[in-house]
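## retry 2 of 3
previous attempt timed out at serialization; input unchanged, resubmitting
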Amino acid sequence: MKNTQDTNPKRQRGPGCLHTSSKRQRGPGRHSGTHAISFQRIAFTWTVLLLAAAVLRADDWTMWGGTPQRNMVNTVEKNIPARWDVETGENLKWVSQLGSQTYGNPIIARGKVLVGTNNEAERQPKAKDDKGVIMCFAENDGNFLWQMTHDKLGAGRVNDWPQQGICSSPAVDGDRFYYVSNRCQLVCADLEGFRDGENDGPYQDEKLNSPIDGDIVWVLDMIEELGVFPHNLATSSPVFDEKHVYVVTSNGVDEGHIVIPAPDAPSFIAVDKKTGEVVWDRGDPGEHILHGQWSSPAMGVMGGARQILFPGGDGRIYAFDPETGKPLWSFQCNPEGMVWKLGGFGTRNNIIATPVIHQDRVYISVGQDPEHGEGPGHLWAIDATKRGDVTKTAAIWHNDEVIRSLSTVAVHDGVLYHCDLRGIFRAIDPDTGKTLWNHDLLSAVWSSPYYVDGKVYMGDEDGDIVVFQAGREKKILYETNLGNSAYTTPVAANGVLYLTRRDRLYAIQQGAKCDPKKVN
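## retry succeeded, writing output
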């Protein structure tokens, strides 16, 4: 495989673009199968993987959502600070410089922190101008170690929005990690980069191979090899199991926002972890893609069966057998009568949030490119034990109080936490869908609620971080501001809370103290 190198530009927005907001006033396919294996072996293997994920989680946060189920909950970490001050250095362990815009969520594994951003920091002197970057820092002190660097696609903003960098959150698997680059490539890379002096894997053509550069093991170019046409940006955060890695390809519409240039190209793929070869692919949304496909897959066992979930660009959740790609069920998240209109003026939505698996249920909300603004939304609880088109039979509950949302939910101890694009944070009963309490953040929200150590952390576009006490009654423990927009989700690992604003990465630890002006 080879490595290949629509709106107002002042706002610099798209699927992962940003602008600075002010506070609102409070108010009213096809697939090829592989050999069959027994259900017992599948169940045993998957149980082992889940146990391994739980063990890793005690030390690290290795993928978007922490586990393949994508539930934004960490039940292992303790003594995570409820307060800090990035101006005085209270409970601040270290600060590191990112690019000028950051949408990739921090991933912590094997003593390293990985973050997707852009190239404005120019840490690699040989890599100038706008590029997609994943930076790697030392977990203990925040020192920069190396970075993956990707040129922009020649077609420009229709495929690769300026200054957005890499929005995909890597998934770490031992000494390898997987991510989707801004060039719509699924990349497998070495966690040590070139610091170990070795060029790992069959891919040997890295242009940058000094100790501060990343080391590609293999790369699948989804544009060249699969005919995919990413709209604005490819952003999916991979998930993996024992043999495969899974991503949404980001296939979408052209610059006119109407024509789908590649309706037969796959939207969902399963790839061999070792070789980068496609094992099976699905093009199910096909000509029904509304805009772009910027969500990520989730995976788990529901109703006794392993399932891989893909959010489609037609607003439908698709579930497949992870081994073969055989369809299991699908659910249309737009109620009947919803209409798609360009620019967000309609009532029909696609899906940007990631589905969350909890017990035998899937929780998902719908939304659009945040540039389209606010509009009617929906939050669903879906019974994942049924088969076929389950749109009319599998809805456990439906909450239409929410508006469009980008947020992935967190479910823990009888409470579901969710936030919509308007910034209305809700605690919801996961059995009934009824709102228990809410809080207006007074700013747009792109990130997701995160539960850890009895608290729920929530960031917004104005850079505010609110810490809630988890539970069925509202209690705010702390509010602070990072000084710049917070588009990513807080995460915790090894007793440390990680927060990003668009140009900085903060490590927060109880009792720590550092000079906040010292930026790595």
